[in-house]
Amino acid sequence: MDQELTSRLLGAVDAAFDEQLDFLSELVSHPSTRGQEQSAQAFMAEALEARSLEVDRWTIDVADIRHLPGFSPVIGEYEDAVNVVGRHTSRRQTGKSLILNGHIDVVPEGPLTMWDQPPFAPHVDGDWMYGRGAGDMKAGLVSNLFALDALKAIGLAPAGDVFYQSVVEEECTGNGALACLQRGYRADATLIPEPFDCALVTAQVGVIWFQVHLQGLPTHVAYAGDGANAIEAAIPLIEALHKLEAKWNGPDLRHPDFAHVHHPLNLNVGKIVGGDWTSSVPAWCVFDVRMGIFPGQSIDDMRAEIETVLQEAAKSNAFLRDNQPRIVYHGFLAEGYALSEDGSDNARQSIATLEGAHQSVTGKPLEKLAITATTDARFFGLYGQMPALVYGPKAEAIHGFNERVSVDSINKVTKATALFIANWCGLEAL
């Protein structure tokens, strides 16, 4: 694309940037935690319809996706799990097609007293917009939309089909993205603006979620020696899992993309509940665990090792020896994904196109990194056979208190995305 057209496109992003921030602020004000995404998705659907995109809005049916590779088990119903896709159909069909994907769901906000201001009352202070989901990842979702707007503002449209996706379930299963695949959405490449500081993600870990259910023997605390404390029985099991974590992080087991990372696989005991009464030896305990795995590792193999470690550790407890822990899988059963291993022409060309767009906007080479988290990229890269580029703004305290996203980085990413679309899809007159 020539310099004059590049300047016009970048200028269009700047001209609409105040509107973009207002749009983002309104979207963040929708508390779209799991199961509560409907108002935010209605807002997105209206925005897509207003832009004359062909809108596909549907409720995910678990029966449609349960049999597919990448499916993660769920707890509860999906009656309110709504995906939204807006389709731009090129008239000329001379360019490459593209999926612009992002997730609308956000993690719970936690105790409100830990926030400086209410999490769903977004505000800007200096270069930062604060609010739950502002960084992860509504800023990127909005960036995708306003990059398309910038093209339209200068009288142009992508010369290849573009599918704008706003999905649910990214934070716990990824089944929203999987449902898009099941519905038939495919393209030559996918761009996902997750908040990794304007760098391209070359590899991401997989994630396994599981619960450990423990049974104890209740009795009055006065006779505690006659009972079996289910909560305390969890302690040696958690210690055993951390030893497994250390083993999996050994240098000889690491994926090459993570060779330089000190501790790439992280285990987290994210929740524990148990017992019924302060003066009763607890009869039950359940703790929830998240564990990372490397790209290329078998989920079934890693699950088997986890189960063996827990069974062996239980033998050290007199009561659990004959009352083995029960393991329940719910949520993420996610494989790792490495864009770096995709040798296809589309992968090489899409990466080069993004590198050029980023360089044009920032004046700097595109940094690349391997992340110790997971994203929806795996569905497109592993199961859709299309390169998935993760590139988004700078954010801090995601999943924490006072989550925030850099306003300047939103501007840069929107400009780079607009240039990427123009050069990847080609352009045609409206």
Write the layout of secondary structure elements.
Blueprint: H1 3-15, H2 17-28, H3 38-50, E1 54-59, H4 62-65, E2 82-88, E3 98-103, E4 123-125, E5 128-130, H5 134-153, E6 156-158, E7 162-167, H6 175-182, E8 190-192, E9 200-204, E10 206-215, H7 230-248, E11 267-274, E12 284-293, H8 299-314, E13 326-334, E14 337-338, H9 345-362, E15 368-371, H10 377-383, E16 388-390, E17 395-396, E18 404-406, H11 407-425, E19 427-429
Parallel strand pairs: 3-7, 3-8, 8-16, 9-15
Antiparallel strand pairs: 1-2, 2-7, 4-5, 5-18, 6-19, 9-14, 10-12, 10-13, 11-12, 17-18
Helix pairs in contact: 1-5, 1-11, 2-5, 5-11, 7-8, 9-11
Radius of gyration: 23 Å
The CATH class assignment of the largest domain is Alpha Beta
CA-CA gap between termini: 17 Å
Poorly predicted sequence stretches spanning 5 or more consecutive residues? none
Amount of beta strand: 15-25%
CATH fold assignment of the largest domain: Aminopeptidase
**Overall geometry:** elongated
CATH superfamily of the largest domain: Zn peptidases
In spatial order, strands of the major sheet run 1-2-7-3-8-16
Annotated CATH architecture of the largest domain: 3-Layer(aba) Sandwich
Give the beta-strand count.
19
Q: How many domains make up the 3D coordinates?
A: 2
**Rounded mean pLDDT score:** 95
Tell me what the structure shows.
With 430 residues, the protein is α+β, with helices and mostly antiparallel strands. It has two domains: 3-204 and 337-429, Zn peptidases (Aminopeptidase, 3-Layer(aba) Sandwich); 206-334, Alpha-Beta Plaits (2-Layer Sandwich), CATH 3.30.70.360. The protein has helices at 3-15, 17-28, 38-50, 62-65, 134-153, 175-182, 230-248, 299-314, 345-362, 377-383, 407-425; strands spanning 54-59, 82-88, 98-103, 123-125, 128-130, 156-158, 162-167, 190-192, 200-204, 206-215, 267-274, 284-293, 326-334, 337-338, 368-371, 388-390, 395-396, 404-406, 427-429. The strands form five sheets. The protein has a six-stranded mixed beta sheet with strand order 1-2-7-3-8-16, with helices on both faces. A four-stranded antiparallel beta sheet has the order 4-5-18-17.
